[in-house]
């Protein structure tokens, strides 16, 4: 019974530390005993393992098929040997023999323990992967367990078994943490390693800022307001572009909060980092104007082929549009996904752009864009629209909701989204500015 006691002790320790339920416990125990039998009798061994719920007694029965001439002693027994035990045995019958634990031996018991530990680890890896594979972009909290070679090893509050780290490049280097301090970070990705899944957390990625806004802004949690794009230079400045599914809800105002309370909570977590919040637009020219805030942009021209925006600002706005060390225009370019070339009005005139700059038609005129160049329209929807003969923005401006629904493959939700996009592009927005959390410097 010593061997049985050793296995049961190993199981009990694992159960306490890994929080296994009874079903998992019995499955592990059976698997471990089968591993022990394989070590003693061979890998093809067959057996039944029964565990008494009340007493905890384990009964192991070896199963061997009766044959004329055994080829595999682990699972076969000769007819003569079987009939020596019972004259009634026939070829094809199964001989059952109960195996006491005393026969297992030290090596077999060790094999059982190793198999149990292995199965526990595999189950743990699966649980970690299932738990976190759908949580990329979510905020996690924990305690700094260790600091090694620049990376922070974090013990999560709700899943302590998971290996979570914040690599050096994913840290805000204006911040300094010590062992035992609590920390919040966003889950950036889940990596597979030979030791199991590893959670890569970040406090430097723009995903972290988005996760903080989700925490502070109920309208984002409810799906009314969306963060459509974000660009960040950690420790210095972040720009986010927001969009509202409800015309009655101002997305910028929702993120700023009453007296700036919501955005200030995010700024505090980021150690004073500046945050620009701008309305998102499907029109790249309008979006570029908004993204360059707090600078006021006079005119913009786009080249869809090269995905380049030419933005013209007054002389007194040029340094603001460029930003310190080019930061503002750089972040605006990252936010929009378009290359932005800045010109002062004087530079533009000298460049020979007088005709374009003072051409008829104001800023509210909507440029005719290929549907594929409009952000926010799914490529599959673009294909459906083009198949219906609608290839540019002007082609769909006068369509009604029912017109979209007549097209095969356009669902009601997508029709509503298209109508909302058209309304946004064709309605003058009196609040085209950005909300900025001002900071000194």
From TrEMBL:
Domain S1 motif: residue ranges: 137-204
GO biological process terms held by the UniProt record: DNA-templated transcription termination; transcription antitermination
Cellular localization per UniProt: Cytoplasm
Superkingdom of source: Bacteria
GO cellular component labels: cytosol
One protein family per Pfam: HHH_5
SUPFAM superfamilies per UniProt: Nucleic acid-binding proteins, Prokaryotic type KH domain (KH-domain type II), Rad51 N-terminal domain-like, Transcription factor NusA, N-terminal domain
InterPro entries assigned: DNA_repair_Rad51/TF_NusA_a-hlx (IPR010995), KH_dom (IPR004087), KH_dom-like_a/b (IPR015946), KH_NusA_2nd (IPR058582), KH_sf_prok-type (IPR009019), NA-bd_OB-fold (IPR012340), NusA_N_sf (IPR036555), S1_domain (IPR003029)
Swiss-Prot/TrEMBL keywords: Cytoplasm, RNA-binding, Transcription, Transcription antitermination, Transcription regulation, Transcription termination
Molecular function in Gene Ontology: DNA-binding transcription factor activity; nucleotide binding; RNA binding
Known function: Participates in both transcription termination and antitermination.
Family of this protein: Belongs to the NusA family.
Quaternary structure, from the entry: Monomer. Binds directly to the core enzyme of the DNA-dependent RNA polymerase and to nascent RNA.
HAMAP family reported for this sequence: NusA_B
Protein name: Transcription termination/antitermination protein NusA
Species lineage: Bacteria, Pseudomonadati, Gemmatimonadota, Gemmatimonadia, Gemmatimonadales
Gene coding for it: nusA
